[in-house]
Amino acid sequence: MKIGFCTNLLNRSSQGVGDEWLAAGKSAGFDYVELPLTQVNALGSREFADLNAKLGDMGLPCEACNNFFPPEIRLTGDSFSLERIRTYLGEALVRAAALGVGIIVLGSPKSKNLEPGFPLATAKNQLVSSLQAISDLASPLGITVVLEPLAKEEANFINTGSEALDIVDLVGRHNVMVLIDFYHLSVEGENPEIVTKASDRLRHVHISDPPERLYPVNPKPGLEAFLRKLASVGYRHRISIEAFSESFSKDAELGLGALRRLIGSMQPDSNLS
Questions:
Q1: What is residue 4's three-state secondary structure?
Q2: Coil, strand, or helix at residue 157?
């Protein structure tokens, strides 16, 4: 199983790509990096070329992206526009493909949150249409989009894995699947059994150590149980650590080591690899 790291939370005040963390992540032993697509798409042509070259020189692939949409591109609400969504995708997906991205996470709460008084049923239809449009453009590039449920502290729409599955089923596309984030699952108090329910549509996982959302340097029993649940359904896809850190070099090495030991201890009794 490949384990990667997200750059979007490492500097709480940064709005950039997070390329300053790449060398430390590579040194710690991560298999890949998960970069924020909105910020990647905002780079100038030369800056993007330099980033791509830097990743290649390091031997650190960008296999996943998060932060899919900027807030001004609305996936629901009165400003919803498939034309505007497709225009953004025409730029962002090309860059993702150039990096070799296989998974893009759709959390983007500011793009999909319900506006006050906006009908829930209409918002669901708009999100389904958005995901179908994304699917049409992402599929030829070999990209799968995973819908991420977010806790109520961040979002007022799609807060649980069950809600995400309902939307994915309505979309009905082979490259629109589900992500489960252990932090959001824990904050919402959702039963980890959702992993079993989602197993055939689960294509990506985010983890951290709640409630502080830190690197899993000393994993708590809840995280171990969650990983065992993944093992029990034969999950073989990627896991990204999406967490805050005040000392990334140290936390990356210790957290990745602890995570690999946990996963390794489950190997004899599972299909995890």
A1: strand
A2: coil
Q: Would you write out the chain's pLDDT as a tens digit for each of its 273 residues?
A: 899 999 999 976 667 899 999 999 999 999 999 999 999 999 999 999 999 999 999 999 999 999 999 999 999 999 999 999 999 999 999 999 999 999 999 999 999 999 999 999 999 999 999 999 999 999 999 999 999 999 999 999 999 999 999 999 999 999 999 999 999 999 999 999 999 999 999 999 999 999 999 999 999 899 999 999 999 999 999 999 999 999 999 999 999 999 999 998 886 444 433
All structural domains of the chain with their residue ranges: 62-241+254-269
Q: Report if pTM > 0.85.
A: yes
**Among the residues of 139-181, which ranges form H helices?**
161-171
Q: What is the CATH number of domain 62-241+254-269?
A: 3.20.20.150
- What is d(CA 267, CA 273) in angstroms, rounded to the nearest whole number? 7
